What does this fold into?
Amino acid sequence: DFFNSAGEYAIGDTASKAMRESLLHKLCYYRFGDVMGAQAFDRVRKQRLPSSVTLHNFEEAYTTENWMVRIYRVKDLDNLGRSHKNAAQFDST
It folds into this structure.
């Protein structure tokens, strides 16, 4: 499921749907486009990265200067009983 249609283990624009929706992929590339710009590029893997990754259940707690260590925490429950996704959609409008 994590290999794309060409049989490659891709992380960029050609990544499989399962890869793009995986928690590991989202945690690794969250805010990457904000820092590197709309044309974010992984120089090691030589692949263009997704421009936006949205997290609903986690929030960034700490990231080192060179992004070698990233720590996330689970968001607190919403006071109104909404799911994290619904609360984020309401906050963005």
